[in-house]
Queue: 2 jobs
Job 1
Amino acid sequence: MLRRLLLCCLLGLAVPAHAILPLPVSQALQQAGLADDDVAVYAQRLDLPLPVIAHRADAALNPASTMKLLTTYAALDMLGPAYRWRTEIYRDGPLVDGVLQGNLILRGEGDPALMAEDFWRLLSRLRQLGVRDITGDLIIDNSYFAPQAQDASAFDGDGYRAYNVTASALVINLQASSLRLAVSADSPARVEVSAEPVLPGVVVQNRLQVTRDSCGDWRSRLQYKVQPKVEPQAANDPVRGVSIALSGTFSADCGEKYLELSVLDGPQYTYQLFQSLWQSLGGSLHGEVRLQALPPQAVKLTEQLSPLPLADVLRRLNKYSNNLMARQLLLTMAAQQGSVPATEEAGASAVRQWLAKKGYRFPELMIENGAGLSRVERISPRHLGNILADAYAGPWMPELMSSLPVLGVDGTLLKRMQGQSVQGRAHLKTGSLNGVSAVAGYVLDQHGQRWLMVFMVNHPRAAASRAAQDALIGWIYRHDE
């Protein structure tokens, strides 16, 4: 007890020492061609009042996906871990002997984890209510969220990658076509490619060649091109078709891999998935798809609350760093604070108001979409550390911590520091962009004491800082009281 009290006193007096990085971290940075002042670090043992390391901790930096820690904690506190999203179905015409003489309307409220199987259950319920044939159109009411003006390709020029999908009040299956790649068991010289879900307007042209080298960075060795389908379509065919041409090489060493693409816009994706599922349920839809706010004469047929509550959604969001889910969360917070249609600006304002109620003032904070997929988002390591400390002391600590990847065990940290003593003893969120690398979360040291840590790098060689990040995690784990 005397030793711990003395340590607390020393920490309180020796403020300049906090700016010094541990030697293993500095050595790893030097080997990576980075200087100590190229990084910013904040680390605190959670049973002590002051940080052990505060190196450039007040710098306003791009946090990449570690910004999701702020977004998800704010959502837990503002919405509650049991919060569920609502998806509704309406009709605007009479229903006679199974025939809807009018339009079917889908109205979303931002469910970030509405998957194809959930949509199937909702449509199955619609069939049970007696709807079979729909003579009109499929109308999508996205008015709960304001239209997103961003160009999906604006961030990195790759608008078809699933991580670039913009938010919408009705998003199904993350608007993604998941391409499964594997070398054929029957023909080892052929790569099998299959798409999930199967959509009538998506065709894959497979020109991949099999190689026998190591798998490595398999994505960099294949190319894809998306373009409108070249075959003629009937003039009245409402299905917008695209083809995905895959070329390059795929190693037999890779086993099974998935390429996640979003090649259809939201309304067309929903329309094609609806057609596929509805036909499998014995139904028919004769019209097209269009966006429109709920007509005043519409009659509600059914609704579905999201199968997953917020706490479970966060596990999918944080463990695999899902950008679209984080965007949906930010807009949901705005809508729940009364800003409908919800905008990202209103979501950012809701988070700032929530921080102010907690007594925090983060003047450097910049929130664009809450996902960290941004060149303008900013927060300091100290303030992100404050959020981690506040969450740890609050009622939602178990929900937030369990949503984070476990070091060397799952999520984005599955293969990191495996086989080392610290494996399984850290819950951390990673973040990476070109020129940005970050990691933040909680580490349990060898003495059973929990720490928070934040490590951020904004530098052209940021990706080379991973060994230094791991060195900090190891240093915290081995820290001697």
Job 2
Amino acid sequence: MDTIIARTEFAAGRRPDHVSPEDSEHEMPQSISPLTADAVDLTDMDLFTEAAAPWRMFDVLRRTSPVHWQPEPAPNKGFWAVTRHADIVAVLKDPGTFTSEKFVTLEEVEDDSVIAARSSMLEIDGLRHTALRRLLQHRFTHRAIAGYADLVRDLTVRTLDNALAEGTSFDFVSKISAEFPIQVLARMMDVPEGDTHKFVDWGNRIIAAGDSDYSDGHGENASGDGHRNLPFGSPASLELFQYGRSLAAKRRANAGTDLVSLLVNGVPVDGVPLSGTEFDNYFLLLVLAGNETTRHTISHAMLALMQNPEQLERLRADFSLMPDAVEEFLRWASPVYYFRRTATRAAEIGGTPIQAGDKVAVWFASGNRDESVFDAPYRFDVGRQNNDHLAFGKSGPHFCLGSALARLELKIMFEELLQRISGARLIGPVRRVRSNLVNGIKELPVEVTPASGG
């Protein structure tokens, strides 16, 4: 009965968060008009503030138009939306045909000088990408990350203790999800503790510039050409650059082992020193990637556990499930909706012809609900096996550098949290980030039940 109610509310524009929102259109009652591929609009950011709308669009595209031409408002020309798991993986594995070098977002920029000024490691392919990646790769191996376990646990404990000290009702995002990963990253970068909240603010303004809570609601690059050379066209990028440069000046020629010192003093394996622009963009990428993915996964995982209390209790009773649960958290959250590639030559994706120069957006979130890969993909299952999710990408040269760190953070956070609470419930609306790039929750009001003896 609850499912029927949820579907009826979806038809009326109300999408409750207490019911799994991602019911496929073909499962809905006949009274609900079916969604067609032609009616899908992946550029409408307002749809991404709703619980169900993105998943309904992905379902329709996977079934009826898995490599789908999505028109865009001018001045953009449109893009191919790739929504099936196998096709997404094929694109990611072929950077020679599908390059990252014209940005990973949907913005169209033809000026090579702007592209060069704004390109981070995400937007560079080939030998230079490998050289930049290897500057810090040794600090993000599974073995190296294991050495951070005590630090991560200490910061987790402090975050949870501070949140719970204020009472059992609070905003989970501001008190825990946004607070915790940035503290970990700050210690790895040797950033003064009092400065960490600046990173959260900068990240919000850069990544979610289309959200009126963080900017003017239209993207900070709407202010004109003065910011066109900055990542995401955001003036907040310049603020972050200036902060990174001040750190670099202090670390230069010092034998520090923090991430900033390694960037400033390291020499890439191709022998070409990091330019000032490359340092700026690398620093920005560390701040954004080190915070956003884990932050939003923690929020979505908490929401899913509240919506599925039997899974919360199952995990509390058996922490040996935690490694599987972490993978399910990542699949379920899909914290990055898509990344864009650009075709360097004529090709095919899933039998669909693609022309040189076409934009191709691979929708990780859709691939993570692909029925051909995941059994009952809309069932949240902390013991799910064979979880071949795409939260970090899949193979290819751009597989997420920080994946081992994110997994460690998620594991320790929920180990510590579930020792402190026996349950939790929503006490207000879930507010989502207005973005089709990041699948973010910006407000999650909860009331937790302390565990016995907690």
